[in-house]
């Protein structure tokens, strides 16, 4: 059994963070159990609230097993070339009927993934505010591509170079927020983002010497938190 400690704080999150700092590990490396939560009654309403949690460092074997399971889940993508070819044909049929005159598109398969690129004048309506429409459109294309597939086929959509511009904007945002976190010592939670955009933030700061990033929340409101290591 791994090292075990009991930590406390005014809230469950604070108790966990205090324990993680003492153990010098990240949250995914421990098992957490709330063992005591002192609730204030009418007679001790002014007394500080105390929450105690038990943190147990996971065994190396368990961490390796979790990592392998996660990688297997993430890598479960379709490698059936025939199915991918059929999915691409379905996308071409749909796009040919859906897009207006003057708007062109190109589909390309790279490493078993389908990339769709749309170009033309007045395509901003397909992008939408902060990419809301392009993300929704990508979801539709993904549904079409996966309608008859035996495993997930990934579809990536770009319109008029929006993804590259958005990536640059997010990378600059990540650097700016990281400087703020280092200066103030306080974590910053970003607005909800897609998995694609969260990955840009994580990748940009993964080698940062002073801050780290974690995701929290459920889709479609999952957010990135940038905090001190």
Structure description:
The chain has 229 residues and is of the alpha+beta class. It has 3 domains: 4-74, Alpha-Beta Plaits (2-Layer Sandwich); 81-160, K homology (KH) domain (GMP Synthetase, Chain A, domain 3), CATH 3.30.300.20; 165-228, Ribosomal Protein S8, Chain: A, domain 1. It has helices spanning 12-23, 60-74, 81-98, 124-127, 132-145, 162-184, 195-205, and strands at residues 4-9, 30-38, 50-57, 103-110, 113-120, 155-159, 188-189, 211-216, 223-228. The strands form 3 sheets. The chain has a 3-stranded antiparallel beta sheet with strand order 1-3-2, with helices on one face. Strands 4-5-6 form a 3-stranded mixed beta sheet. Helix 6 packs across helix 7 (195-205). The relative contact order is 0.09.
Oligomer: single chain
Beta fraction: 25-35%
Secondary-structure content class: alpha+beta
Q: Number of helical runs?
A: 7
Widest beta sheet: strand line-up: 1-3-2
């Amino acid at each position: 059994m791994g090292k075990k400690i009991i930590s406390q704080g005014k809230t469950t999150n604070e108790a966990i963070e205090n324990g993680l700092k003492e153990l010098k590990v990240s949250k995914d490396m421990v098992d957490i159990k709330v063992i005591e939560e002192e609730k204030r009654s009418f007679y001790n309403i002014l007394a500080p609230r105390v929450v105690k949690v038990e943190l147990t460092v996971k065994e190396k074997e368990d961490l390796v097993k979790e990592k392998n399971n996660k990688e297997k889940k993430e890598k479960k993508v379709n490698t059936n070339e025939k199915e991918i070819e059929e999915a691409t044909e379905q996308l071409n049929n749909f796009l040919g009927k859906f897009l207006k005159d003057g708007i062109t598109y190109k589909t390309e398969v790279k490493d078993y993934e389908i990339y769709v690129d749309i170009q033309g004048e007045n395509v901003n309506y397909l992008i939408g505010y902060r990419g809301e429409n392009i993300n929704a459109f990508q979801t539709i294309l993904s549904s079409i591509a996966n309608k008859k597939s035996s495993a997930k086929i990934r579809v990536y959509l770009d319109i008029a170079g929006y993804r590259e511009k958005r990536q640059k904007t997010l990378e600059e945002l990540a650097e700016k927020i990281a400087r703020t976190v280092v200066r103030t010592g306080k974590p910053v939670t970003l607005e909800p983002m897609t998995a694609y955009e969260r990955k840009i933030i994580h990748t940009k700061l993964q080698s940062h010497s002073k801050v780290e990033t974690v995701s929290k929340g459920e889709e479609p409101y999952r957010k990135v938190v940038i905090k001190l290591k």
